[in-house]
Each structure stands twice: as structure tokens, then as C-alpha cells.
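Archive transcription. Copying these from loose printouts into the bound notebook so they stop getting lost. Printout 1 of 2:
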Amino acid sequence: MKSLITFLSLLTLASAAEKPVNVLLIMADDIGFECFSSYGSEEYSTPRLDALAAAGIRFENCHSTPLCTPSRVNLMSGKSNVFNYQDFGLYPNGEPTFANHFKESGYATAAAGKWQLKTEDGGTTPQEAGFDSYCLWNTPMTSRARYWDPSLESDGTLLDLPEGAYGPDVCTDFLADFIESCAETDTPFLAYYPMILVHNPFPVAPNSADMNETDDKKNFIDMVNYMDALVGRLVDTLEANGLRDNTLIIFTGDNGTNADLVSEFEGQPLRGGKGYTYDHGTHVPLVANWPNHIPAGQINRDLIAFSDFFPTMVEATGLPPKKITDSDGTSFWPQCVGEAGSPREWIYGYYFPRPYAEGYDDKYRHWEVRYARDHRFKLYDSGDLYDTQLDVLETTRLNPHHLDHEAQAARKKLQAVLDAHPQQGAMVDYSRVNGVLPSNTKL
């Protein structure tokens, strides 16, 4: 079996050398692992993603930062937020992205969905981030409408859409057209789809049985299913254009589910953890699929961080490695092809969602939080240690005077991780935050 896996890996590299590999990276908005039937949910239906997982690899321990912008900065730059996070709604200007790297390597690049990385006061435009073309919501040009009759900017122009247009459909159609154009010109591509779905508000979706439904949970269930259908639409586009066998698809979510929603999972109610640093705020789905390259039916329990995506895509496509200053990213591509790889022993987390904000609720307005975790234990810079397997909501810190041998070893290891990272955010202007934010060590 090991020799077969090695042979498949060599075929992958050979294929990448003969013909460039396309990449479709999809990230849904505000949805944790508990909302996918492939992860065990019986309340939500995600058949297209289930099929991708069954024919590829599903990761059980992928962790993001628990809020939209921090996760996007982490994902696109390939480094921990402690090194480059500035403020909510901003991607640091001049910070290279995976799109920059792919574009420099001759790829056509496109982005569609939710941007949230540029304001009138700073940040990065899609072009500066390396995207040749885009169709995005939440740019300085757009209003707050994102679903029905949306406000979307495409390549510098505010779209004039027909009445009744649905934003996620418009973005999906844009990427489908982009894929088709690349197929016609035989151009390798990187398509990035930070989806608008399934963030609140929770209106009806095009698949809703009752178009007058006002119940948030019922509409959310429909939105999850429609999100899955849009992923399927792009898979079908790849198939129709003869690109499916030469395209790596990666799917994830940016953070946990909205905390106003409660889902049934494994027979128990589970409240969404968006905005919180415990597992339900950071534990997100991760599926990778590439026919004839990623062996089917794999379930992997290695720790994966968002900074790992950049080096993984680079290795999978055979592009020259990107030197990322201060990176903590590790490629999980070997695991995708069935090899052991170099699994993480820990994940370092840094969370400072709104360093300078006033007027927001305390959920996002608090002092920075630093933590390190392994498969079982999580240690905060406050010194609080939690057993995330026995206490997934982190309600009771472990008594430092009564730790068993395993917990003591974990504390020592995780404290070394905290000590090895900066004590403060490298891009935060602390002269603007001192005395403004309440003290907080854990959410």
C-alpha cells in the first residue's frame, strides 16, 4: 500500500510538471463543522460536499481564527495573525497573497464572493491582492445588500443587476464564466470563492419551500443546502469543460457558526461558536478533492491551521516554494495523497478582532487573546489550561496543582509555543488601544 501511495504521489508531481494544475479554493462564511452531513449532521443536507469528501479526504481537526477578517488574512498570507493582522476589515497593504504567487507563476486568477479586506481608510484591493478579475461584495463601492437584489462590484464597476437577482448566484455564475474562459484559452487558473453564504441575515434562499418564511433557523438550513448546491454547480462546470481531472478543489469555512443558532449534533444541542476561541468557534470543515491524485475515502485527524493552505496549494501544483517571512504554515499536501507528512504538534492562535473599535458589543471589543493547542489541551496566555476533549466549551480550567502527567507535559509544551511567538501583534498600533479596550484573557 505504501509503495502504491508513493507511486501516486510521483504521478501527481509528474502531472503537475506536464500540465499546470488548476485550483478552486472555496470558503463558506460563518459555518462550523457541525453543519455538514459528511461530519455527522442529520439536520443539514450537503450532498455535493459529501461526495467530494467521499471521493477525496476529509480533515477532522482544521482550525481557523473565530472571525471573518482574521481568518481571511491568515488564509491568504500563510502566516499567523500575530505577524500581520491590523484591524477588522483590512488586509495589510503590501502583504503578499497566494494569488500574487500564482499570478507571478502564469496563472489566471479570479475571486468572487465576500471581500471585507479594504475600507476607505486602508487595506488591500482585489487587484493588489493578485486577482485579475473579481465579483465581490463588501468593498468600499458596495452597500450592505448581499443576498436578494445585491450590491456587487465587478472589476471596478458596480453591477446593474435585474430585479430579484440573488447575490450568491451572481458570484457563482461569475466564477463559472471564468472557468469556461480559461478552458477555452487553455490557461491554468486559481479561482478563490470566499462565499457570501451562509452569514446572517437569514432570508429565504432560492430553494426555500416557503418564500415568506421568517424563521432564521429554517432559512439557515435552506441556505446551507443552497451553499452546497453552488459548490456542485462549480464542480459541474469543471466537468463540462473537461477540467475536473486537472483541478484541485479545497473547501473550508472561515469560522464557527453564528452564535444565535443552535444545531443538533450527535444527539445534543450545539450553539454556534463564531467569535469565541473555544473549539466551536474555530473548528471548521476541510475537504480536498482531486480525482486520481487524492485517494478516496480518507479521514485525517491531523491538526490543520489556516496558514497551512498557502504552502499546501503551492506544493500540490508544483510551483516554486514561496518564502513567507514569519510563516507558521505547514503543507498538508502529503496527507492529501495518503502519506504521513509532517503533522503539526500544535496550533498557535492570536485573536484581536477590533483593536481600535468603539461602539461594538464586548464580544468583539476586548484585549488580544493568545493561545496554543494540541489535539487535546489548550493553553491561554493567562495560564488557563483546558482539556478540549472532556470540556469542549472550556467551562472549567484545569487545576494547575492537580495535573496528571499528560496535562503537565502538555502545559510545558504549549507554554514553549507561546513563549516562541511575539507577545504582541506586530502590526497593531498599541498607542491607539491602550486604555480603550476592557481587559480580557479568554472568550
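Printout 2 of 2:
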Amino acid sequence: MGRKLALSGPLIVFVLLLVMGCGGQLAPSYLTGEMKVGYVPKTLDQEFWVTTEKGARAGGRVENATVLVQAPTGELAVDEQIAIVENLLTQNVDALVVAPSDSILMKPVLERASEEVPVILLDTDIPKWKPKDSYIGTDNFAAGLEAGRYLERQMNGKGSIGLITGIPGSVPGDQREAGMRKAIENTDIKVVGEVAADFDRLKAVGAMEDLLQTHPNLDAVFATNDQMALGAIEALQTYQSDAILVGVDGAVEATQAIIGGDMDATVAQNPYAMGKVGVEQATRAANGKSIDPRINTGITLVTKKNAPSYLKIREEQLGSLLGVEE
């Protein structure tokens, strides 16, 4: 059980200084209750992760828990994420919710953490790692499968696909790619080129240019996240390509691009639910309650048909980030 946290001004300042001293990006600590849950996303410089943070805050309200949130400066800053986890443990958190930036490099610090508190993995699983109390996130293979099935329908079972992948070795990215490839098996659709762009929008512009220089008549492009899909738009427009473009995440800007005709589809995750359920489950585990070892937060195929209604949902979830306070 967590210790009662007195909400005095000096103590709040002290907690914030401790978190900031670890480096990285700081989100507000939501001091709402006795239980303290540390939440460590991969970064807070992307809409997806900001949405998980808002979900985590909602989960803290439901469970009357204090949510301490800190993130590295970028998805590749693994050393920062390791230091953040170590720092949160010194703050006597009762549970941790972590989205591992690297499933291999993060394992040692999470092993140590699991000896002290429940550890919930969010978004990115560490396959076959037994100490985790639960994995909460998307079935990324299913997301790739959904994207591939959409492409197969739009392409009438034939044509060429260019693939823009994320960080090499990323479990979610690899699973999305595998799902997409599975969907186009036994068709006349071929993946003719593949370029990694580290889930980065700017790098995806160059990756898309590389694909188009080699394969100027691409019929379709699958990017394993929306940021890379949004970067691909710039190159597709420069080359005047009408290739079908599909991403994964369900980002607001990607949804707007679908409405505007610059993208065809995205397979939306539910980052708000990930954060909310993650904190709820962490709190329950810290209270000695049993929790499900794996929770799938679902996917939604977003196309021009349902993009306007989906956009309203995402805007409501983001709330104050888009200028609308909760």
C-alpha cells in the first residue's frame, strides 16, 4: 500500500525537482490520492504519448492515485528512460507503468523494479518476460493485418507496395509489418522496397523519396506509424504520386489528412485507454488484487467514411492540448 502524501507546497516542489533532476520531459504530477504510480512513456513530444498521459491522469482519478509522469526527450533516448525508472523507484512509487523504448536494453532496470513494485508494460511488450504483471496495448499484428486487408481491397489484389518501417527491432513496428505481409500472402501484391525511418516524420520524407526514386510507379505505401505516413505525404506530393497511403496510430493530423484526401487510411490505436487502464491496473496490482496478464485496447480502421466522427472522439480525448479544457 502507498504512503499518505501530504500536499504541502515545499513537498510538491521537492517531488518536481527530483523528477526534473533525472533529465527528460516532465508532465504534471497529479497528486490526487494515497497510491503513487509512476508512468514512463517513450516520450512526450508526440500526440500519441500525450494522449496516453491524459488517459493515465484519468486512471489516477478513477483509482484515487497520484500519477507521477516523466518521459525521455525522444523515443531513442533509452539511457534517459532507464535513469527515469531508477529515479521513480527512489520516490517510493507503489507501481510502475512503462512503455519500454527498447525491449532488450530496458529489461535489466525493469527486472530490478519488479523486485520492488508491480510493473505494467504499456504499448510495447517484452515477449516471454515473466516478471511483468500485465501488458496493456494494441495487438500490433492485428493492426498490420487490418492495414494489409484494406490495401488488398483497394488494390484489387495486385500491385506494388513500398514499406516505411520504424526503429529496427521495435516490437510494435515488427509486428505491424508482419501482420501487413500476412494479409497480402497469396495475392499478386508485392512489397518492392523497404526503408527504415525510426518512427520519425522528417526521416520519413527522405525514406519516401528513396522508395519513389527506385520505384516511381508504386501503387501503395504502408508506414508503420502515422508520423512517418505524414512525412511520406510531402514526398508523394513532390513526385506527384497517387499511391494509396496507410499508417497506424489514429493521430489527429493523420485523420485530418484522410479527410483532406492526402492519406487513405490509418489503423487507430487507443492511447487514451492504454494510459487509463494502465494506471488502473497498476493501482489494483499494488493493492494486491489480481489483474489480467494481457489487455488488448483495440483498433479502429479510419477511412474517409468515418474520419469525421473519429476526429471528434480524438479531440475530446486530447482536450486542453487542443484548447478545450476538461
